[in-house]
Amino acid sequence: MLAVDFGASSGRTILGRWDGARLTVEDIHRFANDPVRLGDSLHWDFLRLFHELKKGIHAYKQHASGSPASIAVDTWGVDYGFVNGKGKLIGNPYHYRDARNTVAMEELLASLPDAELYARTGIQPLSFNTIFQLYAEAKAQTQSLDGDTRMLFMPDLFRYYLSGVRSTEYTIASTSGLLDPTARDWDRDLLGRISVPSTLFTDIVMPGTAEGVLRKEIAEELQVSVIPIVATASHDTASAVVSIPSLQGDYAYISCGTWSLMGVELDQPILNEDARRWGFTNEGGAERKIRMLKNIMGLWLLQECKRQWELEGETLSYAEMQEMAKREKGLLYYVDPEDPVFLAPGHMPDRIRRYCAHTGQTVPQTKAELIRCVVDSLAMKFKQSLDEIELLLGKKLASIHIVGGGIQNRLLCQLTANATGRPVIAGPVEATAIGNVMMQAKAHGEVGTLEQIRQVVMDSFPPDRYEPEDSAEWQEAFHTYKQVITKKSVRS
Ligand code: LFR
């Protein structure tokens, strides 16, 4: 099976080999995903990404014989494109970090109060949520959206151009802020209130469903046979959560990459005032589960520092950055990795320094100090979020599972154990691609339940474990961190 995983900074095609009991994964194609600023807007380069998708399918031949049993695509959340009745892509999909969204959010929230929106959708109001993007779109009237046009989220859009089927997969739709989280379907009344035609929205399909086969012209172009196309848990975070190696329900997870998504898996959403105030969101998971989680600006902070230093002429690897931070003294300065000031691309070191200065802290000067500040702050944010999750659930959680590329930052894993006082269980690193493949296996009838999938992941990809250290020191420092982030929110 081929899993194509588009992340916000890079993409990969993974070949998953399933022997009926165990899974192995092999990376067969990797590519960069660089957003493009065109005029005054920020876009995804859909055509280039589709080209990379085809290259990944083609690469299969160098690694295995015959054709893959199926293909499925997952991507980051919230973004979308429009396809008209003739199957043409209208415009270029916008990047969720485009500036148009902030104003749109403020305007819409003025007529549709945050508390009402949260009670209806259970989604934390982040400026890039699809609801605000569509509202901005409707106001600007840059596209003509007739009755035959459909809005497709990024994985659905890729799937459409692979198979010709226009449908919307549940987990990706759940990132939009337009679903009723209890019915797990569009909130039709809400759709009416954002001034876009309701004909834009297609039916919702559940993850693990076969949705057509590879278009004839692509099969001919790549000289492959007819391959089934599957709607997997097509929001990357949903696929990552599928592959958490545990059968117990007493942990919090962090899907750690560009973003750190921290939360728990539930049967029903939590829509109360505390969940809203603390910024939790209720997205959809495989098997109609709810991913109650918080969007934390994870490794983005380091990615943007790295990019800035490259512009200034110094190229550092993530491994080097980690080593530099490890040698630094910790617990000296903090930022709030949830603060919107860090959302847009731009000079990250300056923004971190400014944040520290505004909050009356010592200002990190060197690169190593900046990196240490980010890693400590993330660990502290995980501790703060864990406390909030435990209050929402009314129980203590035994451990923290971290999955995704972020586990390669071993310092972050260790500091998360220290800050939370819980063991951290790290892995698998390719969580998203593994979840994507296993949901395809489910569509083929090879596995039945989430438990079975997680048992396969446990057997196939044994995780690492980090025990908490220096707990007293971290507990004390946590109070300082909380004072700092409270100061900032009072000032901004
Ligand atoms: C992670 C992710 C998050 C989503 C963010 C923006 O890759 O999908 O879950 O909030 O990207 O789409």
Automatic annotation (TrEMBL):
<dbReference type="Pfam" id="PF00370">
    <property type="entry name" value="FGGY_N"/>
</dbReference>
<dbReference type="GO" id="GO:0005829">
    <property type="term" value="C:cytosol"/>
</dbReference>
<keyword id="KW-0808">Transferase</keyword>
<dbReference type="GO" id="GO:0019301">
    <property type="term" value="P:rhamnose catabolic process"/>
</dbReference>
<feature type="domain" description="Carbohydrate kinase FGGY N-terminal">
    <location>
        <begin position="1"/>
        <end position="242"/>
    </location>
</feature>
<dbReference type="Pfam" id="PF02782">
    <property type="entry name" value="FGGY_C"/>
</dbReference>
<keyword id="KW-0684">Rhamnose metabolism</keyword>
<dbReference type="GO" id="GO:0005524">
    <property type="term" value="F:ATP binding"/>
</dbReference>
<protein>
    <submittedName>
        <fullName>Rhamnulokinase</fullName>
    </submittedName>
</protein>
<keyword id="KW-0547">Nucleotide-binding</keyword>
<comment type="similarity">
    <text>Belongs to the FGGY kinase family.</text>
</comment>
<dbReference type="InterPro" id="IPR018485">
    <property type="entry name" value="FGGY_C"/>
</dbReference>
<feature type="domain" description="Carbohydrate kinase FGGY C-terminal">
    <location>
        <begin position="252"/>
        <end position="443"/>
    </location>
</feature>
<dbReference type="GO" id="GO:0006071">
    <property type="term" value="P:glycerol metabolic process"/>
</dbReference>
<dbReference type="InterPro" id="IPR043129">
    <property type="entry name" value="ATPase_NBD"/>
</dbReference>
<keyword id="KW-0067">ATP-binding</keyword>
<keyword id="KW-0418">Kinase</keyword>
<dbReference type="InterPro" id="IPR018484">
    <property type="entry name" value="FGGY_N"/>
</dbReference>
<dbReference type="InterPro" id="IPR013449">
    <property type="entry name" value="Rhamnulokinase"/>
</dbReference>
<dbReference type="GO" id="GO:0008993">
    <property type="term" value="F:rhamnulokinase activity"/>
</dbReference>
<dbReference type="GO" id="GO:0004370">
    <property type="term" value="F:glycerol kinase activity"/>
</dbReference>
<keyword id="KW-1015">Disulfide bond</keyword>
